[in-house]
Specification:
30% strand; alpha+beta; 391 residues; single chain; eight-stranded antiparallel beta sheet
Length: 391
């Protein structure tokens, strides 16, 4: 006679029931996560990012390893300007599934571009190009970065490549090539390219921008000439004149040695001429001459005439702007125009442009003053750092 083991049957039945409960609970949880994800996508498209973030986090609570959920989390972080969090999630996706999410190299590059971390942006764009060499957006945005860095020789071929890869970029890429030539003051070529961009689609906003820039180029040509002349004439009344010509003209600081108990009218005339000798890519150099005159009605001893010659060179490559400036000055004073001062000055100015319009300016000035009367010779050194913070 066959004997059935009821104990084993009960065990099997419990296991089956437990599995069915677990599986149905798992299916229910997955369905809940999927619904939360669909809601998150809907709110994301509707630009309700707070709700979208809430729903995607609910989905991830149920299924924390779901890569698609993580991808939308990164997108929401990006839209809400939580850029570091977005990069962290995108990089995790690439590490977990490089074949599926290598496209996020481009998205990471665009985030770094927004943060003005240009070297990082360039690095990720190069990775994106290896993965997707036929993506015109990569070449175009790499060109934009080089344009911002004023590296026009690198920017122009990238815009050309974007046009070659995708004809839909023809107008906007041609427009930016025109900008590159305009910023190099190659106005004839810039004008030709702006006209070409208009022909692609005359009714677009880009075409309107091209027309406006073309109309402005004539003024830029005048403004871009290598020489300039500036004159000024002013009249002032001072009821407490420094009785030292150099102090009154603010050429040297007030020492307290001269009295301040007189009043008089003063005529101030300035003439400055400058000429740019060299402008090549990021470098510029030139010289200038200034004549300045302070003529008093009654206090003839305060009369001052200065002749100032200078040479300079500048270097400008974002985020750095640097100027080195040497100046030689010779001053005559009193109504008899007696020799008063011979001065040599060397100044350096370093400007570091930071993101969001922040700017740091570092100045160093050395002045060697050789007095041509009984005044003891002296020198003056100034070093300063200024932080500009937009409000």
């Amino acid at each position: 006679m066959k004997v059935y083991n009821c104990k084993n049957k009960v065990t099997y039945l419990i296991i089956i029931l437990f599995y069915m409960c677990f599986y149905s609970g798992f299916v229910f949880a997955q369905d809940k996560a999927k619904k939360a994800f669909e809601r998150a996508k809907f709110e994301f498209e509707a630009e309700n990012y707070d709700t979208a973030l809430l729903m995607i986090n609910k989905a991830l609570e149920v299924d924390p390893e779901n890569l698609e959920y993580k991808y939308y989390l990164a997108l929401i972080y990006e839209r809400t300007e939580k850029f570091r969090d977005a990069v962290s999630v995108f990089e995790n996706l690439i590490k977990t599934s490089p074949e599926k999410y290598s496209k996020t190299y481009f998205q990471i590059a665009m985030i770094y571009a927004k943060l003005e971390e240009n070297e990082q942006a360039m690095s990720y764009l190069k990775k994106a190009k290896k993965i997707d060499p036929k993506n015109a957006s990569i070449y175009f945005n790499e060109g934009i970065l080089f344009l911002k860095l004023m590296n026009y020789q690198e920017a122009i071929p990238l815009f050309e490549k974007a046009k070659q890869v995708d004809h839909n970029f023809s107008q906007i890429a041609t427009f930016h090539i025109g900008l590159a030539y305009q910023r190099q003051k190659k106005y004839k070529m810039a004008k030709k390219l702006f006209k070409e961009a208009i022909e692609y689609a005359p009714e677009t906003s880009i075409a309107k921008d091209c027309k406006q820039i073309i109309s402005n180029i004539k003024g830029e040509k005048t403004g871009g000439r290598p020489w300039s002349i500036i004159t000024s004439l002013s009249f002032q009344y001072d009821d407490n004149v420094y009785l030292d010509a150099l102090e009154a003209a603010d050429i040297r600081r007030y020492t307290g040695a001269a009295s301040r108990d007189k009043s008089d009218f003063c005529t101030n005339f300035n003439f400055m001429g400058s000429y740019r000798l060299l402008k090549f890519n990021m470098w510029e150099a030139g010289f200038s001459y200034t004549n300045t005159q302070f003529i008093y009605n009654d206090l003839g001893d305060n009369n001052l005439i200065g002749n100032i010659g200078s040479i300079y060179t500048t270097f400008d490559r974002n985020p750095v702007w640097l100027k080195l400036h040497y100046e030689f000055s010779y001053y005559f004073a009193t109504s008899d125009l007696e020799d008063k001062l011979r001065m040599n000055s060397i100044e350096s100015i370093l400007v570091l442009r930071e993101k969001a319009l922040f700017r740091t300016e570092i100045r160093a000035l050395y002045q060697d003053m050789e007095f041509l009367d009984d005044t003891p010779d002296t020198y003056h050194v100034t070093i300063g750092i200024t932080q500009f913070i937009p409000i």
